[in-house]
Amino acid sequence: MDRPKEAPMQGNRSAEKSVTEARLVEAAGQLFARQGFKATTTKEIAQLAALNEATLFRYFPRKPDLFVAALESYLGRIKLSRDLQASLASDDDPELVVPKVVEFISHFLVEHPEVRHLLHVARFELSEADSIVRESLGPMFDLLRGYFKRSANHGSIRNGEPSCAALWLLGGIAAHQSFCELLASELPQPLDGDRAIAAYTALCLHGLCDPLPVSPQTYDLHDRDRQITAGLKDPSPGFEQP
Predict the structure, then answer these.
(1) Which residue spans of the chain are classified as CATH 1.10.357?
(2) What residue spans in the chain does CATH classification 1.10.10.60 cover?
(3) Exposure letters 125-139 (e unless 16+ CB within 10 A, then b)
(4) CATH fold label, 10-75
(5) What span, in angstroms and rounded, lies between the C-alpha atoms of 138 and 80?
(6) Cα–Cα distance, 45 to 219 (Å, whole number)
(7) Which pLDDT score, from 0 to 100, does residue 235 have?
(8) Are 43 and 61 in contact (CB under 8 A)?
(9) 155: helix, coil or strand?
């Protein structure tokens, strides 16, 4: 009688390998985001993944390889909704599209705070991860750049460099939150709160579009939001427009 094929056993080994890699990548992402690349040891990663260090090195012979795998995994969680993709592919007014982009970025950074920190680590500690960042964020950047280019051609926004506008919108919110955490005496307001989203949207539209007359009520709201998103206390009810 022929011996049974060993394919199922190989499949089990493959599944086991996938689970082990996933545990290592998840643990690495958490520690690299919290401590940085140089300050994180492979021993700490293995311990958090409930594995031994020898197992870690069987899957990732170099610590940079593990960081790149973790960064790629976390960046892969950035998924644009169909509605947002359709908006960016359209010629809708920026006042309709920009709020959707701001809300998406804000909610994602709240749900996946490790991504912002991993991007900082990649930028300042491990330059070889730059290619992963470009490959992962490139499609989203191209959509934004294309939308801003068409909007400029139609006269909906200022006739500036669309790449700069896309880069500012993608990185500006995250960078502002980082500065708040670093410099403010208090933690910034929730990034995905309605007031924060409204303030970031107003700031983006102000930079993209020609200035428009605003009522005193609008000025007062935007001024209050700017203070809130800067990490300051909520102004008292007696706050007055200067």
Answers:
(1) 83-229
(2) 10-75
(3) ebeebeebbeebeee
(4) Arc Repressor Mutant, subunit A (1.10.10)
(5) 13
(6) 50
(7) 40
(8) no
(9) coil
pLDDT per position as a tens digit, 135-172: 988 999 999 999 999 999 988 998 888 998 888 888 88
Task: Tell me whether residue 45 is exposed, middle or buried, using C-beta atoms within 10 angstroms of its C-beta: 0 to 12, 13 to 18, 19 or more.
Answer: buried
Give the number of other Cβ atoms within 10 Å of residue 107's Cβ: 13
Q: Are 44 and 30 in contact (CB under 8 A)?
A: no
Q: What is the CATH number that goes with domain 83-229? A: 1.10.357
CA pair distance 169, 192, nearest whole angstrom: 15
Q: In angstroms, how far is CA 68 from the centroid of its own chain?
A: 16
What's the pLDDT score for residue 12?
46
Residue 39 banded pLDDT, cuts 50, 70, 90: very high
pLDDT top residue among 173 and 95: 95
Q: How many CB atoms lie within 10 A of CB 88?
A: 21
Determine how many CB atoms are found less than 10 A away from the CB of residue 95: 12
Could you give the 3-state DSSP secondary structure of residue 25? helix
The contacts of residue 156 (CB under 8 Å, 6+ apart) are 93, 94, 209
d(CA 68, CA 104): 24
pLDDT one-digit tens code per residue, 57-72: 999 999 999 999 999 9
Nearest to 115 by CA among 164, 171, 155: 171
